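Sequence, please.
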């Protein structure tokens, strides 16, 4: 895997590229699955099935495309309503909407100045949740990983997250995440990029020392979606 520049300047096209890459990987996978697969539990999202995750993802992207951001949008209650509104849809209809959203949301996100960038990262993580439920290897890896890591690095800086230096097995250069204020010594991560994403997304990871090392921070401190 090659290195992706994660410097301070926002690349407005990055979220859209991430969505396009994920669309091209995920949609064919979904269209090849049976209805029973859509009913599988998504362990990363307790109480939700694969279909629920996909309905949430498609509705979120269509809100971006259609500029529908009423008060309380993306709250747990709002998410449940969006899923319920699609209860009578076929699985194919949910996938169709998801494909449209992943195609059309990128330019809208690019023009929004950065406030919607995290949606693209969240969609990519949820795609990993779906692959994990299906038992597909490399759930949070693939061609989109370098772009997801670059977006993650910038979002953690903007949100003044704790500083962390990541030496990644699958990138040429170290990745610096979080706010480099000097108030806290940067934590250190050694391991692969997919496990780093799992840590920041609050997804299950192996025990420390079994595939990765994290020094100077507890894994719970890294979660940006918690």
């Amino acid at each position: 895997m090659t290195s992706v520049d994660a410097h301070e300047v926002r690349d407005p096209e990055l979220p859209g590229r991430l969505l396009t890459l994920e669309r091209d990987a995920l949609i064919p996978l979904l269209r090849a699955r049976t209805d029973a697969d859509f009913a599988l539990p998504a362990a990363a999202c307790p109480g939700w099935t694969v279909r629920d995750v996909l309905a949430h993802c498609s509705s979120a992207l269509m809100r971006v495309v259609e500029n529908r951001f009423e008060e309380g949008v993306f709250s747990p209650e709002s998410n449940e309503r969006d899923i319920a509104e699609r209860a009578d849809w076929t699985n194919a209809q949910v996938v169709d909407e998801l494909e449209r959203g992943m195609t059309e949301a990128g330019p809208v996100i690019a023009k929004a100045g950065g406030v919607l960038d995290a949606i693209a990262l969240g969609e990519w993580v949820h795609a990993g949740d779906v692959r994990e439920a299906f038992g597909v290897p490399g759930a949070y890896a693939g061609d989109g990983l370098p772009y997801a890591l670059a977006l993650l690095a910038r979002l953690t800086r903007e949100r003044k997250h704790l500083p962390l230096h990541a030496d990644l097995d699958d990138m040429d250069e170290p990745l610096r995440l979080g706010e480099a204020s000097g108030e806290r010594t940067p934590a250190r991560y050694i391991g692969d990029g997919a496990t780093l994403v799992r840590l920041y997304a609050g997804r299950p990871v192996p025990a420390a020392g079994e595939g990765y090392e994290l020094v100077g921070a507890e894994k719970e401190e890294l979660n940006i979606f918690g």
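Confidence is low (pLDDT under 50) at residues 1-7.
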